[in-house]
Amino acid sequence: MLTEFGKIFVFIVLSLVFVVISVFAAKLIRPKRPTTEKLKVYECGENAEGTPWIKFNIRFFVIALIFLIFDVEVVLLFPWALVYKSYGIFGFLVGAIFLILLGIGMAYEWKKGDLNWDRPKISPPVIKKENN
Amino acid sequence: MFDIIFYLFAFITIGSALIVVTARNIIYSAFSLMLTLFGVSGIYALLGADFLAVVQIMVYVGGILVLILFGVMLTNKITNVEIKSGNRNIAVSLISVSVLSAILFSVLLGTNWKETNSQIPETTLFGIGELLITKYVLVFELLGILLLIALIGAATIARKEE
Fold first, then answer.
1. CB–CB of A79 and B128 under 8 A?
2. pLDDT above 90 covers what percent of chain B?
3. Is residue A122 part of a domain?
4. Residues of B with CB below 8 A from A73's CB?
5. Is residue A50 situated within a structural domain?
6. Would you say the ipTM is above 0.90?
7. What is the residue range of A106's domain?
């Protein structure tokens, strides 16, 4: 008898086997005639230019950081959500206080503008009048 | 059957952990860290700790690994510096690692491992939830405060100075 995790494991193994078999079967069957054009990095038909190692916007990191904290919060809420009904109003209040605490954090982030995206400031071109 | 799957997960964990420390390119290290964390979660699932296994994937693979990858990609002036890792201070680290593993092994051999014949429960979630509401209710609320502090602290550190 398989447990639920056993079923997931079977799915993972099947998907791995499927990928490996299809890639290797294709490698066996297909003709191989490489040219310089074919071996180039594919970038939607454009010639690739420069390095892919660009510096990302710092906002991605902050959003990921905030996501991680709410991720942990959700993890703690799962077991609570399963059983709180059998404890009546007390069980509900326990989770409600927890959620309000995190809500305060969310409101703080929102108010302080940590959720806003950093955009480069656009300075419109100004035509200067020459004084004669 | 259980043993085969256990050794498979153990092999995945240790093998990818080896790649993490030996890979020259730090991105390869980060991606093999994902396999390591998956392997650990598989071992948790095998031991019947279903909640821990899912949390491992949700928090470590879904959150912390993404954070590490962003950290690598955000590194300043990445175009001029080759992001590679090397070996340094081999003698010192050899001593500290052997001392640490000696301590771990002595604990491993000296512990009285408990054995029970009881069936592995279908899910441990209900038990954890009941404990969170009854016995550890204060800890649960304190965790909320701790998370709030972490949230505000992280945002404050990451914010641009005006």
1. yes
2. 27
3. no
4. 144, 147
5. yes
6. no
7. 9-112
